[in-house]
Design a protein that fits this description.
Its EC number is 1.17.1.8. One of its GO terms (cellular component) is cytosol. Residues 130-263 form the Dihydrodipicolinate reductase C-terminal domain. This is 4-hydroxy-tetrahydrodipicolinate reductase. With 264 residues, the protein is an alpha/beta fold. It folds into two domains: 2-123 and 237-262, Rossmann fold; 129-233, Dihydrodipicolinate Reductase, domain 2, CATH 3.30.360.10. The chain contains seven helices and twelve strands. It has helices spanning 12-23, 60-67, 81-90, 104-117, 129-142, 164-174, 240-249, and strands at residues 2-7, 27-33, 56-57, 71-74, 94-97, 121-123, 147-154, 197-199, 202-208, 214-222, 225-233, 256-258. It has a seven-stranded parallel sheet with strand order 3-2-1-4-5-6-12, sandwiched between helices. A five-stranded mixed sheet has the order 8-9-7-10-11, with helices on one face. The longest helix has 14 residues, at 104-117. It is elongated. The protein binds NADPH dihydro-nicotinamide-adenine-dinucleotide phosphate and the ligand O=C(O)C1=N[C@H](C(=O)O)C[C@H](O)C1. NADPH dihydro-nicotinamide-adenine-dinucleotide phosphate (NDP) binds next to helix 1.
Length: 264
């Protein structure tokens, strides 16, 4: 049995992840990590059945000492995730990170730390297989159609923009796309932000609306043609098989992997 701890268990993703781990035949949910007092067990929160008597901790070191998790799944927010990932690696717990919003410097530091300690870690901007395929197909298309704009669309409670998926898509495309600025060389924004974020000359546009879950379109323009690659997560169940896959996969790893496209 893989011993799993979850940070962010009360959240939209966290509650689903709790059920996923509780139901999984090869996993045991041994702890939850929170930053405030929410009761002694997950059952005390009122969000889960009484049978979910999983202890809750506010201190990672104490959680590790008492419950000895193999894996920490983090589904919190961009303010805490770097600290959680670093602490987990330092304490010999393999991180599986769904939370987005890392800087390049943080990713580089955590990659070096995991390699130094020979501890597996996965940082996955998106756990949904359809989203991974969207990114892979977009990378392929960019070899032939280098004029690209990304439109990512999410619910209005999302803290980071652009989304982790939008950034990862742009990074994957940049690996193969000829470097170029897009649009007219003399274009001028008459309202700041009108052209979106600039990644290597590509534009990323972030839409935030109630009712949305997680959606992205990658648009490729060519002479007389438009290719659109689109993925929609219609509910958070779309991410759960990816989380279960990562929890199992990270047990075999000794380095940090950024992006599920590298291990599927
Ligand atoms: N990789 C993927 O496939 C996916 C990634 N995500 C990412 O996962 C993260 C969570 O998303 P979502 O569930 O929608 O967000 P929510 O805001 O619904 O959930 C986050 C939860 O974490 C709690 N939290 C905040 N800080 C801490 C902390 N230090 N320790 C423990 N818990 C904490 C929050 O509590 P409180 O509200 O009290 O602050 C909240 O309950 C986001 O970064 C999102 O981008 C989302 C979907 C898919
Ligand atoms: O906050 C979300 O909801 C999501 N976050 C991830 C991201 O930033 O790409 C993954 C998915 O898009 C949902």
């Amino acid at each position: 049995m893989i011993r799993v701890a979850i940070a962010g268990a009360r959240g939209k993703m966290g509650t689903e992840a709790v059920h996923t781990v509780m139901k999984h035949e090869a996993m045991e949910l041994v702890a939850a990590l929170d930053y405030k007092d929410i009761g002694a067990t997950l059952a005390d929160t009122g969000l889960f059945p009484a049978s979910y008597s999983v202890p809750v901790f506010t201190d990672m070191a104490e959680m590790v000492a008492q419950t000895k998790p193999d894996v920490l799944v983090d589904l919190t927010n961009p303010h805490f995730v770097y600290k959680h990932t670093k602490e987990a690696l330092q304490q010999g717990v393999r991180p599986v990170i769904g939370t987005t919003g890392f800087t390049d410097e943080q990713l580089a530091e955590l990659t070096a730390l995991a390699a130094d300690k020979k501890i597996g870690a996965i940082i996955a901007p998106n756990f949904a297989i359809g989203a991974i395929l969207m990114m892979k197909f977009a990378k392929e298309a960019a070899k032939y159609l280098p004029d690209v704009e990304i439109i990512e669309m999410h619910h209005d409670q999302k803290l980071d923009a652009p989304s982790g998926t939008g950034v990862k898509t742009a990074q994957m495309i940049a690996e193969v796309r000829e470097a170029k600025g897009q649009g007219h060389p003399d274009e001028k924004e008459t309202m700041p932000g009108a052209r979106g974020a600039d990644f290597d000359g590509m534009r990323i546009h972030s839409v935030r609306l109630p009712g949305l879950v997680a959606h992205q379109q990658v648009l490729f323009g060519g002479e007389g043609q438009l290719l659109t690659i689109r993925h929609d997560s219609l509910n958070r169940g779309s991410f759960m098989s990816g989380i279960a896959f990562c929890v199992q996969e990270v047990m075999q790893m000794e380095t940090l992997v950024y992006g599920l496209e590298n291990i599927i």
